[in-house]
Amino acid sequence: MNVNLLFMDESCSKPIDNNKTIISSLTGVLVPIHRYAELRTEFYNLLEWSIKPEPNTINMDVPELHWRKLLTGEEDEKKINILEGVVALVLINQLEIYRCGCYVTQKIQKTFKNDKQMLGTLWLELLESLKPKIENEMIIPVMDGFDKNMVRKFSQLVKGMDVMRAAGHKQSISLKHSENILGEVFYADSYYSIFTQVADLISGLRQLSDISREGKELTDYKKMLLMISEKLEPAIVGDDGVKAMVLNGEIQSLCK
Q1: Rg value, the chain, Cα
Q2: In this predicted model, what pLDDT tens digit does every residue of 163-203 receive, in sequence order?
Q3: Terminus-to-terminus CA distance in the chain, angstroms?
Q4: Residue 171: inside a domain
Q5: Which helix (H) or strand (E) holds 77?
Q6: Is 199 within 8 Å of 7 (Cβ atoms)?
Q7: Which residue numbers in the chain have pLDDT < 50?
């Protein structure tokens, strides 16, 4: 049975309407374990200019590829080339992207004070979208960062299903084949974890697509990034569009 690493990153937009509604999303990139070594090599090839700045020189302090602080101090052209390279890595190697997002209104934030980004809900939705995958393959989830509240949102769900199976109540678990989720979610520092960096960049690009769909004005630079984001669409499994939640019978969406 194939085993995959699911590298994940969460993203939260700035307020996008007068009611301070935000877009919260969770993005996962599926990396088959048996291909990890070759994919790692391809990733570092993108950073050869930094690793070997001069002949017979090795730079061990390779920059972290982070959406909000992408290659600080470098020209826009270099940033665009890196993003193009990451997208090409995903597409050429036919990596799968799983993503879900929702509008988080002020009402939702006040109601769910312990999970204002609705990450617990998004994690469950992401697992639901993985159902066809875990039917025949195994998945090891790896989340960017380590925060006690985040651990509780992600790991408790997986551990809860493990306990239900141990108690003999496998049939009561709505997520079929959840036994093929290995580990209770692992956590990684993105500075050292290259594929959480990939997930972060994809998350940022797709959030830009979300904002564009809402009719928001983009700078010329962000318009170029939007074109890069659109290239990812063949790799996205299912619909990664932002969904409106229902709270007390009321649809929680943007204030137009």
Answers
A1: 19
A2: 999 999 999 999 999 999 999 899 999 999 999 999 999 99
A3: 48
A4: yes
A5: helix 76-92
A6: yes
A7: 255-256
Q: Is residue 226 in some structural domain? A: yes
Structure tokens at 2: 């194939």
How far is CA 41 from its chain centroid?
Answer: 21
* 204, two tokens: 């940022």
The total of structural domains in the chain comes to: 1
Give me the domain span that covers residue 69.
Answer: 3-249
Q: Is residue 141 part of a domain?
A: yes
The first and second tokens of residue 187, run together, are: 């956590």
Residue 9 pairs with which residues in a beta bridge?
A: 27
Residue 254 placed within a domain: no
CATH of the domain at 50: 3.30.420.10
CA nearest neighbour of 89 among 239, 194, 215:
194
CA dihedral over 155, 126, 3, 144, signed as positive or negative: negative
Identity at 88, one-letter amino acid code:
A
